[in-house]
Design goal:
Elements: H1 3-18, H2 21-32, E1 39-41, H3 46-51, H4 53-63, E2 67-70, E3 73-74, E4 77-78, E5 81-82, H5 83-93, E6 96-102, H6 119-129, E7 133-136, H7 147-166, E8 170-174, H8 188-195, E9 201-206, H9 207-212, H10 217-223, E10 230-233, E11 235-236, E12 244-245, H11 254-258, H12 261-264, E13 268-271, H13 281-293
Parallel strand pairs: 1-2, 1-13, 2-6, 6-7, 7-8, 8-9, 9-10, 10-13
Antiparallel strand pairs: 3-4, 4-5, 11-12
Helix pairs in contact: 1-6, 4-5, 7-8
Length: about 300
């Protein structure tokens, strides 16, 4: 048995041992229908996680969240905690890791645990933690200066997607607003959609950044049905500043977007609020969580 197959089997076995029957049932349901509950992208609580990882996760669980999207994976750890330690914390809190953000590694070649440095271990650790998706999180300025960068990125997403698929994980790409800005006469996001393999690469649509870019997400759902299994749900305040706000307190028409969730292929959506004016992120995500409970999801 080669290393990849061994790691894959070991990771799956470990994950199945950890995952409860009720969670397997809920995941099976999510695979064939729209997610009914909001998850949380932990970037919102980055400062709290740095100070007290376990305590922050426990507070998230008390708010009511059950599903998490991680970030800050490096060399087999999240915020200095091993995969085994993170699993234990999640198990105690009744939470599930659905996804994690990763970086290409082009701008930081020495960083271990990126799409270009020790990728298979990154995927194996994600599988061990029970994650079903991985998302390329962000492109630094030096990684997106030309359309050739996006063509190269499409190739990398496909390659990483092949490895992820062997572990039962779906590769995705998370956008900001710059992907929708014309570059060399074309829209970079269209390059990614057209040149990435439809089976290997899906997309995590950040609905704040699409609104900021003046893009209609529903049109993308119609033109590329089923390619958007993950969403970032964060609202945009009124006025020129267009600052981040708790979901339901901004200008985005959430019910209209969720009315097209099945068309998008939605499996899980995550609350995220990059920054808060109040300086109280736990209060902000609590408001978002309560608001989204009232949104009809079909």
């Amino acid at each position: 048995m080669n290393r990849r197959k061994f790691l894959k089997n070991a990771s799956i076995a470990s994950a199945l041992t950890f995952i409860s029957p009720s969670f397997i049932s809920s995941c099976n349901g999510a695979a064939y229908g729209v997610a009914k509950e909001a998850g949380l992208q932990l970037y919102t609580l980055r400062e709290a996680l740095e100070k007290d990882f376990k305590g922050t996760i426990e507070k998230v669980a008390k708010i009511g969240f059950k599903y998490l999207e991680f970030f800050n994976y490096s060399n087999g750890k999240y915020f200095g905690n091993s995969i085994t330690e993170v699993k234990s914390i999640l198990d105690e809190s009744g939470l599930q890791a659905v996804s994690s953000h990763v970086l290409t590694g082009w701008a930081m070649p020495k960083s271990i645990g990126t799409m270009t440095n020790d990728w298979e271990r990154t995927v194996a650790d994600a599988a061990e933690l029970g994650q079903s998706h991985l998302a390329c999180a962000y492109l630094f300025d030096s990684e997106r200066k030309s359309l050739d960068h996006y063509r190269k990125l499409s190739e990398l997403l496909n390659s990483c997607g092949e490895t992820a698929k062997e572990y039962g994980i779906q590769m995705t790409y998370h956008n900001h607003d710059f992907e929708f800005q014309t570059l060399e006469g074309e829209i970079p996001y269209e390059i990614l959609l057209s040149q990435s393999d439809i089976n290997l690469v899906k997309f995590e649509l950040d609905l704040y950044w699409t609104a900021r870019a003046g893009v209609d997400p529903i049109q993308y759902f119609k033109n590329h049905q089923g390619r958007f299994p993950l969403w970032h749900v964060k609202d945009m305040g009124a006025g020129k500043e267009q600052f981040f706000s708790a979901v339901g307190e901004g200008v985005i028409d959430w019910q209209n977007i969720f009315d097209h969730a099945s068309q998008a292929g939605l499996k899980q959506f995550f609350v995220e609020q990059d920054d808060t004016k109040s300086g109280k992120p736990f209060e902000e995500i609590s408001k978002s969580y309560e608001y989204l409970k009232g949104i009809k999801k079909s």
